[in-house]
Amino acid sequence: MTSAQVDKGNSGGQAVETADSGASGEGYQRALGARQIQMIAIGGAIGTGLFLGAGKAIAKAGPSLVLAYAVAGLVIFFIMRALGELLMYRPVSGSFSEYAREFIGPFAGFVTGWTYWLFWVVTGITEVTAAAQYMTFWFDIPQWVSALIFTVILYGVNLISVKLFGELEFWFSMVKVTAIVGMILICAGILTLGFSDAGDTASVTHLWADGGFFPHGIKGTLMTLQIVMFAFLAVELVGVTAGESKDPKTVLPKAINTVPWRIAVFYVGALIMILSVVPWTEFQPDVSPFVAAFKEMGLGLGAGIVNFVVLTAALSSCNSGMYSTGRMLRDLALNGQGPKFFTRLTRSGTPLVGTTFSAALMLVGVWINYQWPGDAFTYVVSFATISGMWAWIMILISQLRYRRLSDLGVLPRSAFRAPGAPYTSVFALFFIAMVIVMMGIDKETRISLYCAPLWAALLGISYMVLKARNPENKAFAKN
């Protein structure tokens, strides 16, 4: 992003902050420290997709779900290392939208920015609604009341300062990490010491003895890939924090390099332990495997504990949505691909109008979900998966083009080059393509592929209108 863009974005009486004041080159405050970035990176990989969605995946794949998470986790690592290479070349808050604009073209940046914004708005709607539902476990209050309270609180947190956002996300992530580590330790204790109601039957042989490792064949495992990839959505959020990290060139590589062990422990490790203690045939598609495991162990507090954890996961996702949507809208506006009023920052360096607009839409979505909780809303929610994977596709293509230009000496080489690239990036692209094919085969997720062309057409028309109105704007010129 050029200084001219920043100057333009901060017009209207706002002071342009300098590096000496601790601001980034985009007007943001670099207030996120290493501790917060690390936990944001960890929390981005742990959400309701694991705590709730894994039950449905276990029913489809059995123990082979462990392999699905391991392979998909490797692909996620390739994606994150590709993103890391780009971030060390140019750490900006617009992240993959900026890279798509630079290395693919202005239309790609336009589509990526607006699609990622939509992804988080839709995700925020579903997560704040889910959080309100989880509250009914303890309190007999209307869902809309809880949804309104949560949205207002998270909106306020994101407007006060990015440091407060980071602190809240740190503790949200800490709860999720503690819950999974606690579950792993309890399961390990049952397997080795034999305590609890599940102690007599717990055994690692459950991973292959109850119908085999692939009880529904390879196809059953492949059909879970869209569920698995959905669980990993938001892992790329660490890239959006680049413009507000205190020391991005040191902190971000460390956070990205923790991806393998995070996936190994929190997904592969947790599932191996749960499926060893409780046979996979005991799990139900619509029940959290964590709740089911606690029940089988005879631990009565399990349901309440897991409910608190999934509530935290939902609020964490909504908090991340508030954070990222405002920054994506501001990045689009700074590049002339969105309304100028989205460029406005508060005194603490947070995008006021973009965050407010997104939060308002989340509240409207909650109301729609309350009034018409039918299939139409479910179809819209299914679009979140394909829109999230679009960001991954843009990251990989941008990295491939950047790598070619840097190898030719046209651009400086990144200090954090993706190992195995370009082959790893190409492999990740093929894997994502396979997941999309699986989504088309599965009738429950096929609708998301119908929504994608409609969204693309809307963006195409909007882009042409903006370009026609601003023919001299460099934001619409091919690099």
Outline the structure in words:
Helices cover 69% and strands 0% of the residues. It is mainly alpha-helical and 479 residues long. The N terminus is likely disordered. It has 21 helices and no strands. It is globular.
Structural class: mainly alpha
Mean pLDDT: 82
Rg from Cα? 22 Å
Run of helices and strands: HHHHHHHHHHHHHHHHHHHHH
Strand content: under 5%
Distinct helical segment count:
21
Largest beta-sheet characterization: none
The shape is: globular
Low-confidence stretches: 1-25
Q: What is the total tally of β strands?
A: 0
- Quote the distance from N terminus to C terminus: 13 Å
Helix content: 55-70%
Q: How would the blueprint of this fold be written?
A:
Elements: H1 3-9, H2 34-44, H3 48-51, H4 54-61, H5 65-89, H6 96-103, H7 106-135, H8 143-160, H9 162-193, H10 206-209, H11 217-222, H12 225-232, H13 237-240, H14 248-257, H15 259-277, H16 289-297, H17 302-334, H18 352-371, H19 375-407, H20 423-441, H21 446-469
Give descriptors for this structure.
mainly alpha, 21 helices, globular, 479 residues
Task: Describe this structure in a few short sentences.
With 479 residues, the chain is mainly α.
